[in-house]
Amino acid sequence: MVVAEATFMIERSGGVVAEAAIFRRLPTLRRFVVESSHAGCSTLRILTRMTTPVPTRFTDEELALIDQLVDHGVADSRSAVIRRGVHQLADSVHRAQVGEAIATSYRALPQTPEDNELAMANAIAMTEAEPW
């Protein structure tokens, strides 16, 4: 299925420039394939990093904070700072969900004194087995 046709230039080593042609989307892979040809050769490349612009409004204070992060070397650009923030937020939410699932399972089936004794015995055995 052809999603879009585009012509763009690819800079190659030695200053040779090739023209690339058709984008095809592979829905199962969720990646884009580029067909390019140069000097009679045809190659396929999979682009794993296609981005989509998302219009977002920031206050002057938020932009100043983003610029400070760029200036401090946290990322190379404003976009990279925002992407990094999204990834950190997603990681934080995922960790909170996993933590809640663990806490819920312990509330549903709390540890017994026998569990604690078994855990202590295993810890002692593993410590004694170390070649300190």
Describe this structure as you would to a colleague:
The chain is of the alpha+beta class and 132 residues long. 45% of the residues lie in helices and 27% in strands. The protein has three helices and four strands, in the order ββββααα. It has helices spanning 60-71, 78-108, 113-129, and strands at 2-11, 17-26, 31-38, 41-47. It has a four-stranded antiparallel beta sheet with strand order 1-2-3-4, with no helix packed on it. The model is unreliable at 1-37 (pLDDT under 50).
The description of the largest β-sheet is: 4 strands, antiparallel
Q: How many strands appear in the DSSP assignment?
A: 4
Tally of alpha and pi helices: 3
Structure class? alpha+beta
Distance between the termini: 63 Å
Which residue ranges are poorly predicted, with pLDDT under 50 across at least 5 consecutive positions?
1-37
* Rg, Å, rounded: 26 Å
Order of helices and strands: EEEEHHH
Beta-strand residue fraction: 25-35%
Going across the major beta sheet, what is the strand order?
1-2-3-4
Rounded mean pLDDT score? 76
Helix % is: 40-55%
- Tell me, briefly, the overall form: elongated
Short description:
By secondary structure, this protein is an alpha+beta fold. It has three helices and four strands, in the order ββββααα.
Helix/strand layout:
Elements: E1 2-11, E2 17-26, E3 31-38, E4 41-47, H1 60-71, H2 78-108, H3 113-129
Antiparallel strand pairs: 1-2, 2-3, 3-4
